[in-house]
C-alpha cells in the first residue's frame, strides 16, 4: 500500500525535508569532536576542565534546538494520524469492501476476544484477510490446527447447516443482512 503524503492532513510536503535537520546533528557531532580534541591538547587539569565546560555549553543550543524540533514533529504526526478503527475501515475501502464495515462493526463487540472461523467470501468480493482481522480485533481468526472457533462469520456464502439453523430460528445465529451472518458454534 502506497500513501501519497501530499494528501495527509496537517502534513506539508515542502516542510518534510529541510537542511537544518541535517545541520543540527552534524554540528552536535562536531562539537563533541572539538571537545575531545581540546581535551587531548590541553595538559593542565584545570584548563582541561574549563575547556570541556566551554565546549559543552556551546553544544547546549544545538541539543535544545534538536529536541524542540523533534517534539514539534512528534506533535504534528500525532495530530495528523488516524485512529486504529478508522484505519481498519480505510483498509476495507481500499478493497472495495466498505459495505462490510457496518457488519464488521456490528459483529466486533459480539465476538469480544473469542476465536472465529470465517467462511471465505465469494470471488466477486475480493477481501484482504488482514483487513478483516484488523476490523474484528480483539477477536482472532481460527488458525490451522488451532483452538476451536466459538463463532462462524459468513460474508456472502452461507453454508447449508447455518441456513438450516436460521430457518429453525436458532437464537445463536444472528443475521445482519442477506449473506452476512454471525453464528455461535
Structure write-up:
The protein has 185 residues and is α/β, with parallel strands linked by helices. The chain has two domains: 5-80; 84-184, no CATH class. The protein has helices at residues 19-41, 45-80, 84-94, 101-111, 129-135, 160-167; strands at 115-119, 140-141, 151-155, 173-177, 180-184. The chain has a five-stranded mixed β-sheet with strand order 2-1-3-5-4, sandwiched between helices. The protein is rod-shaped and about 95 Å long. The chain starts with 18 loop residues before the first helix and ends with a strand. Residues 1-14 have low confidence and may be disordered.
| Count of runs of 4 or more consecutive helical residues | 6
Shape descriptor reads: rod-shaped
- How many domains would you count in the coordinates? 2
Could you tell me how far the N terminus lies from the C terminus, measured between alpha carbons in angstroms? 35 Å
Residues in helix, %:
40-55%
| Unreliable residue stretches | 1-14
Alpha-beta classification: alpha/beta
Strand content: 5-15%
Order of helices and strands: HHHHEHEEHEE
What is the overall pLDDT average? 76
Number of strands: 5
**Biggest β-sheet: count, sense, barrel?**
5 strands, mixed
Strand order of the largest sheet: 2-1-3-5-4
Radius of gyration: 29 Å
Amino acid at each position: 500500500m502506497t500513501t501519497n503524503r501530499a494528501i495527509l492532513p496537517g502534513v506539508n510536503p515542502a516542510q518534510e525535508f529541510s537542511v537544518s535537520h541535517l545541520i543540527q546533528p552534524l554540528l552536535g557531532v562536531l562539537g563533541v569532536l572539538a571537545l575531545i580534541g581540546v581535551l587531548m591538547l590541553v595538559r593542565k587539569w584545570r584548563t582541561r576542565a574549563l575547556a570541556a565546560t566551554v565546549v559543552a555549553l556551546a553544544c547546549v543550543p544545538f541539543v535544545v534546538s534538536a529536541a524542540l524540533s523533534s517534539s514539534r514533529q512528534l506533535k504534528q504526526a500525532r495530530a495528523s494520524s488516524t485512529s486504529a478503527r478508522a484505519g481498519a475501515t480505510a483498509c476495507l475501502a481500499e478493497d472495495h469492501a466498505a459495505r462490510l464495515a457496518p457488519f464488521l462493526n456490528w459483529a466486533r463487540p459480539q465476538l469480544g476476544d473469542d476465536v472465529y472461523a470465517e467462511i471465505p467470501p465469494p470471488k466477486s468480493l475480493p477481501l484482504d484477510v488482514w483487513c478483516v482481522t484488523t476490523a474484528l480485533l480483539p477477536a482472532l481468526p481460527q488458525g490451522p490446527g488451532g483452538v476451536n472457533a466459538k463463532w462462524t462469520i459468513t460474508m456472502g456464502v452461507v453454508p447449508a447447516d447455518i441456513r438450516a439453523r436460521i430457518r429453525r430460528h436458532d437464537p445463536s445465529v444472528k443475521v445482519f443482512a442477506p449473506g452476512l451472518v454471525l453464528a455461535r458454534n
